[in-house]
Specification:
Layout: E1 6-9, E2 12-15, H1 21-36, H2 42-55, H3 59-66, H4 77-90, H5 94-108, H6 116-124, H7 136-152, H8 156-165, E3 170-173, E4 181-184, H9 189-201, H10 205-218, H11 223-229, E5 236-242, E6 247-251, E7 257-261, H12 264-267, E8 274-277, E9 280-282, H13 293-298, H14 308-332, H15 336-355, E10 369-375, E11 380-387, E12 393-401, E13 407-413, E14 419-422
Parallel strand pairs: 5-13, 12-14
Antiparallel strand pairs: 1-2, 3-4, 5-10, 6-7, 8-9, 8-11, 11-12
Amino acid sequence: MRNEKCEQRNGERRPARQVSPFRIFHFAFCILFLLVGCETSKHVIEGRRGVSAYLSGNFTLSQRVLEPLTEKTDEDYVLNNLRYGSAAFAAHDFHEAERAYVRAYQIMNATKVNDAGREAAIVWLSENKKVWRGEPYERAVANLQLGMIYYAQNDYGNARGAFENALFKLRDYKSADARNYDEQESDFVIALLLLGRTWTQLGRTDEAARYFDRAVELRPGVSALARELGNRSNNVLLYVEYGFGPRKVETGMDGNALDFYPHPGQAGSIPLPNISIDGQSAPTPIQEPLFDTLSMALDRRWQKIDTIRKTKSYLGTGLMVAGAGATIYGADRRDEGAAIAGIGMMVAGALLKASSEADIRTWEMSPRTAFIIPLHVPPGTHDISVSFQSGVYQTWRGITIAPDRETSFLFRMMPVTSREYDFTRPTAQSVSADEVPMSR
């Protein structure tokens, strides 16, 4: 016969409090249910609204929605500045785009951004509490766009700096250990080519040749393009962004792993652009895409590594299993102390399991690829068209080519913006929400 547990109180021996098993499990269920629930914050909803406006081609509205978020120094500070910069970039609002990209750049390249308190929140709450700084391929594209903003304004000194920043060293991880990697030179060919063109504009053909040679060494298919970029008689440079980069999705039974969607095979091959000047086809040296963010995202060298996610998941599972066992034991023995301890373990395990979910924040506006196309166009007023076999196109009428300097035009190609535009309209602010300039 089992001895009954007793407690001493005021000199009397009384049987220990007995707790209903149903009461214990009801309490545990309520706690775990509360842990799972979460509320999407207002700034997250506003961020999504700004992205939606961008994807619909309404860049002015996207800027208006996203601008207040760029001042919030929270975990989405970098992401919201890149989003705002994308909208301003597409609307050709260079001043605002530059400000946003510079703010994002300062945090993306800073050290010790996530302090001890925030690191603790990452461990016990969620990876979404971590300051988002983007995958390496996203950082490279951000620097590329910042460089093009400077370049289009003939600010070749700052353009050179931004293109160089897009060529940071890559980490080739040998294992899941974040400390076990080899450093490699970047293979971001478009930045090498633009550096060559920038040095050409600065009159340093020796430096230009160094970057052109490196680009051709990595990708022999760009040799014709490198040759034309080194030709200063080409007085027009088109920068054409096409498609969209990947988005992150959760995988695994616990949602504690990441994948990128779509894969290149799912999205299909990247078409090459066709250029026409005043209705006449213009030959281009483009033979292949210069990069593909869908492929880069799958390359370990272009990913950041985060082993803490899986560690937390496994630990959380162990705590939940052990907690469930302790809770059952306590309920069976009518031992409230053991039952409450088991509930505590289950709660801690649930917290870790919830926090081990993958951080799927992504820069939704990043392009899949970009083309740089040097041309020689007589000075004066012209119509320029860029089109793809996919049906995406833009025609700009009334573009003025300067007689004494290179003129650059930036095109953000999207199905919703495929139409003709009148380039003589002075600013994005004077254009309706459905007709925002894409280049200048």
